[in-house]
Design goal:
- The structure holds two protein chains of two kinds.
- By secondary structure, chain A is an alpha/beta fold.
- Chain A folds into two domains: 352 residues, Peroxisomal Thiolase, Chain A, domain 1, CATH 3.40.47.10; 32 residues.
- In chain A, the strands form two sheets. In chain A, strands 1, 2, 4, 5, 6, 8, 9, 10, 11, 12 and 13 form an eleven-stranded mixed β-sheet that branches. A two-stranded parallel sheet of chain A has the order 3-7.
- The longest helix of chain A has 17 residues.
- The radius of gyration of chain A is 21 Å and the shape is globular.
- Chain B is α+β, with helices and mostly antiparallel strands.
- Chain B contains 13 helices and 14 strands.
- The chains are: A alpha/beta, B alpha+beta.
- Chains A and B meet through helix 6, helix 7, helix 8, helix 9 and strand 5 of A and helix 3, helix 4, helix 5, helix 6 and strand 6 of B.
């Protein structure tokens, strides 16, 4: 009985992406099929841009909006949607004891300032002094706060009043997996009753394109769904905001919160990424879930990025489970690193609440239709470079 | 035989290994000698040109050269050194095979100016350099190592590989409270029974022109450039900001049961952790001090203690007008009349503010305080602030009986974390 009281329920979802705002927009877009992306704004780079957000709806004060850069606005907005969805907005008593784990990178540059400095620096008499002087005069003081990874959490505290605790995990895809894993572990162990967990990413950043161009990871020229990008591979950066409210069953029942799905397990690993490591890690994690999985009623929502060789290894793993329907949402959403896993958990919960899986988004051998009722979803999150994770969600 | 669980029935978490690097030296012994001698590690910056800057001093760790310098590279090296010392002292596991997870507090990571400049040059752009030019240079493949180097996960990945920690390593930031949060995550994992041991590290090697200027533009830094060693003046009336600094600290946390079973030397007990976020402002504390007060009370309650049990406070004590005022207010509210007589001394008066590492560095110094029963001073305390009537252990170390220590860490973004440490397992 004690164990049942400590099981974790997802009671709130807040999501924004190129597909729109909120669960309805996402469900409709996924059911309609036809993933696509922006191929012109950052050409030759392909990017999934955020839908237009009416910021005033979730961040009422203009002063707060001005203190943030886009990634923080996306995240603060999505967190507000999640709290709305859980029926917690303005519930000061619960928000004051709600624990927050945010998965975030940070950054954002002043591109004009960077370009101006790089353009003039080499002609300066003393390039080092020139850099100091220009940074002193060109950097906006508030930009620093918009660059700090933990200031998404800080903004959520300020705008939405979540103050139980505030922790920010960094580290690309792994940060998202471990944020949810830690939230679940704390709830199961009685260290927390209610957690707001999620993250945000802004894809419209030339500095981010540069960061991934170093390693040749960007999808260029022509859009293709993630399973159809091998052998070269690549991901399209995707703007995402994704937050979940997760609470103990006892806490959720006490306030009569609606349950969208049960979060039953989250596992994460770190492999060295030698050939075959991803497939091995997935198999090992799958085995740990095996006794819980009900064959015929389970689907996979994959966080495959399109990056190689990780995506081909994940595909090889699914080839061993041909009876299970797989969906890679990255074809629709692009890749947003820290919040990707949280987003896919949200979409899994959404599918479970509908009792069915959305149709395949592409015509390769990987995604097949699924008939019949959906009872469980396994979410995968394989980082483009490091980090492997899975989650198991079950129908309410 | 005494119990290995606390009053709440949770596994007692002890420290069996510690390592530390700051501007005062590499190793606990060097740091402790300098700290109790009241020495300052703050000096004029020599890593880069400081012409045109308002602040030209810092506690850079110059005796650990990394070439070429970058924040993640130095942070990684400092963390390596601290972890090496901590694991060796603990004697846990085998070399390269640490039997538990890694929790790492690190500064945020991004490509820095030397790389931007290198890319601009490689692009061949002459007059106007845009990000299109940088992207073209990046696409050449010549800069491939920068991908991994400037991943947020890169420092933790390196440490996980080097020390063989288990599972997915966690990199975290709660700004200037990060080091304390890393320890808190380790404590929680052991209390959950997920692991018998955890490696908790805070590291920060982020002093470069842009990071210094960012803090400078927020008017957070001391500008007492002429006498660097006297610049950090926590709790003094003439305090004028914090001094940026570098460093790292590592702690091997272990369940008491595991430590006893392998006959490990127990250096101290992580008795309690507390936190409370502040929703008032991005850089300022709530004027009523409630989040700070709540954070401290949560930590003391988590330890199963009362304020009466705290013998010494290792404060956040940055030396900014705002922090020290608010921290004194919080301490006074929690400890009442006793606040005036509990020693409270700021390590930052000597080592500066080691940012992401501070909570971990100061936890190690707190544990050394327990071990040696000697309290390091707050140096540069020449002009008392009448609005802060606390015993700041001015200018000279002092022997004292210390059983339980409270260590505070506060950060931008409303981050508050406190730790309570004790000498002996209950």
């Amino acid at each position: 009985m004690a164990e049942a009281a400590r099981e974790a329920w997802i009671t709130g979802i807040g999501i924004v992406s190129c597909l729109g705002e909120g669960v309805q927009a996402h469900w409709q877009a996924l059911c309609a099929g036809h993933p696509q992306a922006d191929t012109t704004t950052f050409a030759p780079y392909i990017v999934h841009r955020i839908t237009a957000l009416d910021l005033d709806k979730q961040i009422p004060k203009k002063g707060d909006q001005r203190q943030m850069e886009p990634w923080q606005r996306i995240g603060t907005y999505a967190a507000g949607l999640a709290l709305d969805s859980a029926g917690l907005k303005g519930n000061a008593e619960v928000l004051a004891r709600t624990d927050m784990i945010v998965a975030a990178g940070g950054g954002e540059r002043d591109y004009a300032a960077d370009s101006a400095i790089l353009s003039s620096r080499s002609k300066a008499d003393n390039p080092e002094t020139f850099l100091n002087e220009r940074l002193m005069s060109d950097l906006r003081p508030t930009l620093f706060l918009a660059q700090l990874a933990n200031l998404l959490a800080g903004n959520i505290s300020i705008v939405h009043g979540v103050t139980g605790s505030s922790r920010t995990f960094m580290g690309e895809e792994s940060a998202g997996v471990d944020a949810v894993r830690t939230a679940l572990a704390r709830i199961n162990a009685g260290q927390s009753d209610i957690v707001l967990v999620g993250g945000a990413y802004n894809s419209e950043r030339p500095d981010m394109l540069m960061q991934y161009e170093f390693g040749g990871f960007n999808l260029k020229e022509k859009y293709a769904p993630v399973w159809q990008r091998a052998p070269k591979g690549g991901f399209a950066l995707g703007s995402l905001g994704a937050f979940l409210v997760i609470e103990s069953r006892a806490q959720a029942e006490a306030r009569s919160a609606g349950r969208l799905a049960r979060l039953s397990a989250v596992l994460s690993e770190r492999s060295r990424r030698r050939p075959g490591d991803v497939e091995t890690a997935l198999a090992r994690m799958w085995d740990r879930l095996a006794d819980k999985i009900e064959s015929g009623r389970v689907a996979v929502i994959s966080g495959a990025t399109g990056a190689e060789p990780a995506t081909s290894e994940e595909r090889a793993f699914f080839a061993r489970h041909k009876d299970i329907a797989v969906r890679a949402t990255g074809s629709y959403l692009g890749h947003g690193f820290e919040p990707q896993f949280v987003m896919n958990i949200a979409l899994a919960a959404l599918a479970l609440s509908h009792g069915s899986l959305f149709p395949p988004g592409e015509e390769s051998a990987v995604e097949r239709p699924m008939e019949g009722p959906l009872k469980q979803v396994v979410v995968t999150g394989i980082g483009h470079w490091r980090g492997e994770g899975v989650a198991l969600l079950e129908a309410p | 035989m005494s119990s290995t669980t606390d009053r709440a029935g949770r596994p007692i978490v002890v420290v069996t290994g510690m390592g530390v690097v700051t501007s005062l030296g590499a190793s606990k012994s060097e740091n402790w000698a300098n700290l109790t001698a009241g020495k300052s590690g703050i000096h004029t910056i020599s890593r880069f040109a400081t012409e045109g800057l308002k602040t030209r001093i810092a506690g850079t760790v110059d005796f650990v050269p990394v070439e070429p310098y970058s924040t993640p590279r130095l942070s990684e090296r400092l963390a390596d050194m601290a972890a090496e010392e901590a694991i060796a002292e603990s004697g846990i596991g085998r070399r390269g095979d640490f039997p538990g997870p890694l929790f790492l507090a690190v500064p945020p990571v991004e490509v820095e100016w030397p790389q931007r400049i290198e890319l601009a040059q490689a692009s061949g752009a002459n007059d106007a350099v845009s990000y299109d030019d940088l992207l073209r240079a990046a696409a050449s493949g010549r800069f491939n190592p920068y991908h991994a180097r400037f991943m947020f996960a890169s420092v933790a990945d390196h440490l996980a590989e080097t020390f063989g920690t288990k599972g997915s390593p966690i990199s975290l930031s709660t700004a200037c409270a990060s080091g304390a949060t890393a320890i808190q995550l380790g404590v929680e994992a052991i209390r959950r029974g997920e692991t018998e041991a955890a490696l908790c590290i805070g590291s920060d090697g982020s002093i470069n022109p842009e990071s210094l200027i960012r803090f400078s533009l927020l008017s957070a830094l001391s500008t007492a450039n002429d006498r660097p060693e006297e610049a950090a003046k926590p709790f003094s009336k003439n305090r004028d900001g914090f001094v940026m600094a570098e460093g790292a600290a590592a702690l091997v946390l272990e369940s008491l049961e595991s430590a006893k079973a392998r006959g490990a030397n127990i250096l101290g007990v992580l008795e309690g952790c507390g936190e409370m976020a502040d929703a008032f402002h991005r850089t300022r504390s709530s004027p009523d001090g409630k989040p700070i007060i709540g954070c401290i009370c949560n930590a003391i309650a988590d330890a199963g203690l009362t304020p009466e049990d705290i013998d010494y406070i290792n404060p956040h004590g940055t030396g900014t007008p705002e922090n020290d005022k608010m921290e004194a207010l919080g301490v006074t509210a929690v400890f009442g009349e006793r606040a005036r007589s509990i020693p409270i001394s700021s390590n930052k008066s000597m080592i500066g503010h080691t940012l992401s590492a501070a909570g971990a560095v100061e936890a190690v110094f707190s544990l050394l305080t327990l071990q040696h029963q000697r309290i390091p001073p707050t140096i540069n305390y020449q002009v008392p602030d009448p609005s802060i009537p606390l015993d700041v252990v001015p200018n000279a170390a002092r022997d004292a009986e210390v059983r339980h220590i409270l260590s505070n860490s506060f950060g931008f973004g409303g981050q508050n974390a406190s730790l309570v440490m004790g000498r002996e397992p209950a």
